[in-house]
Design goal:
This protein is mostly helical. Helices cover 66% and strands 0% of the residues. It starts with a helix and ends in an 11-residue tail after the last helix. α1 (2-21) runs antiparallel to α2, α2 packs across α3 and α5 packs across α7 (142-157).
Length: 168
């Protein structure tokens, strides 16, 4: 009997929920779920309603009122959102793992690339002049050397990191 009632009310509920949902700022599917739940609760306690279509229309309107009232009470915060304080522990762990993978790849680079990349990644934020002086190379050759080292680094990291390329 419950299956027959649900099958008979399904098209009416879809139409009523669609008609009421947008006026109350809700999704039709959300209203439908709420009404189905109310129907199941009613079937368990009082049995089927005497006028199922009438009951369903009233239930949809009651859920729409409840949704409107909840939307009216639940406004956005005036202040900053709670997560403005910074990244969470999982983000810190992911960032640390990426930094470790990068440092390991830099150590595997050939020639003087590890020293150059360490200088470029240094928290001291060295200038090209300072890096060239530290490595004992001319400042003019630093750019081409950096490009070669970054190419090597990309090739090393390619199997480990998915590249961000446009597809399609």
């Amino acid at each position: 009997m419950t299956y027959d009632l649900v099958a008979a009310l399904r098209p009416l509920l879809a139409a009523e929920a669609s008609a009421e949902a947008y006026a109350c700022g809700s999704e039709p599917g959300d209203l439908e779920q709420a009404v189905w739940l109310r129907l199941l609760e009613r079937l368990e306690s009082d049995g089927p309603p005497p006028d199922p279509p009438g009951w369903l229309r009233e239930a949809v309107r009651a859920e729409a009122r409840r949704s409107r009232h909840a939307a009216w009470r639940e406004g956005p915060y005036d202040g900053e959102p709670a997560d403005v304080l910074g990244p969470g522990p999982e983000q810190h762990a992911l960032t640390a793992a990426r930094h470790r993978a990068l440092r390991q790849a830099v150590r595997r680079l050939p020639g003087r690339c590890p020293r150059l990349m360490d200088a470029l990644l240094s928290p001291k934020d060295l200038t090209y002049r300072e890096i060239a002086g530290e490595l004992g190379i001319s400042q003019g050759s630093l750019g081409p050397e950096r490009s070669r080292c970054l190419g090597c680094l990309r090739r090393l990291l390619a199997p480990e990191v998915a590249t961000c390329q446009a597809r399609g």
